[in-house]
Amino acid sequence: MKLALVVGGGVDRSGEYAVIPVLLALIERLSRVHEVHVFALVQEPAAACWKLAGATIHNIGRGRTHVRGIAAIRAEHRCAPFDLVHAVFAGPCGLIAVAAAGLLRLPSMVHYTSGELVALRDIGYGGQLNWKGRLSERLTLRGADAVTATSAPIIDELRAFGVQAQRVPLGVDLRKWPPLTPRPRREGPARLIHVASLNRVKDQPTLLHALARLAKTGMDFEMDIVGVDTLQGEMQELLGRLDLGGRVRYLGFRTQRELRPLVESADLLVVSSRHEAGPAVLLEAAVAGVPTVGTAVGHIVEWAPSAALAVPVANPERLADAIHTLLGDEDLRLRVARAAQCRALSEDADYTARTFEALYQRLASCSRG
Q: Global pTM?
């Protein structure tokens, strides 16, 4: 099959920086047996083309992105017809995919893995904040021949829109991120890790206030925070005000190769997000034998209580208590880690690719029929 995948980004030509590892894993697997063309909306400011993970990347660039994205898909279709158009993210990607597929009379599929269906007005997050976003998603959902989503909470969001979607988690590449048996805690401070961009939806203030509360209990711990800072140092200032400087290290961005040893050395991953479809780092941590405590979002909701501990969003007291519970009971921590690893291994990158391919074949068959 010849496939058109529409993504916002995550496919930088370096293959290492500004990439989404689970997306690259999917592209690589699809490219083994299909001709894959990835249309990235704004990976780079200007239009360009390169090869990555066995696929051809068509970067659309800034300016009239919707129109130019549709035109790029149509131009490649004229060279040799596509069999299907798949938006691996919704929002602008979904609208472009269904519009291009409609013009070319091709089947289309849209995967929801972000906040296109929510409106968190206090932090300005979500695709439903304004009429343009609401209209865009209505048109996308009306035009898509199949809709999928990363986790059960997003399936529930789609159901509220009257759409029945199939759950397809974006799994980890086990060749590049191999499994590691969960290990007992080492001597010394508990090692915590938080992997996320510093932004409003990831809600690091809740994380830091939870850590401050944890410190007051006498728990000995160290926390590594890994991610790009989009808040111009706000969290570092809060870190100082909470007197956590000796316990928390902000490490900035790390590549996957740099991140792996940090995750391996951790006793616990902590997630504080207001909204997630995944997060992918939970899957990566689980594969590496590390359990997760986090807010009740995405996979954390699905896995709790046996394979993760979930607490209400924006509740530092409950988050601190859950961290304390898991660090204070080594048998429980290892039990949760093993259950999480079993789940992550059963839905790895190979599983994701197989599931999408089965959907492609079904849609192509219906289209031919």
A: 0.95
pLDDT bin (cut points 50, 70, 90) of residue 245 is confident
**Type of residue found at 181:** T
Where would I find the H helices in the chain? 21-33, 65-79, 92-104, 131-143, 152-160, 204-216, 234-241, 256-264, 280-287, 298-303, 316-327, 330-346, 349-368
SS3 347: coil
Q: Are 340 and 286 in contact (CB under 8 A)?
A: yes
Instruction: List the domains of the chain with CATH numbers.
Output: 2-171+348-368 (3.40.50.2000), 190-346 (3.40.50.2000)
Tokens encoding 174: 């086990």
CA distance 159 to 3: 27
Cis? peptide before 305, omega within 30° of 0: yes
139 C-beta neighbours (distance < 10 Å), count: 14
Tell me the β-bridge partners of 191: 222
Dump pLDDT digits (tens) for 148-178: 999 999 999 999 999 999 999 999 999 999 9
Distance CA 336, CA 330 (A): 10
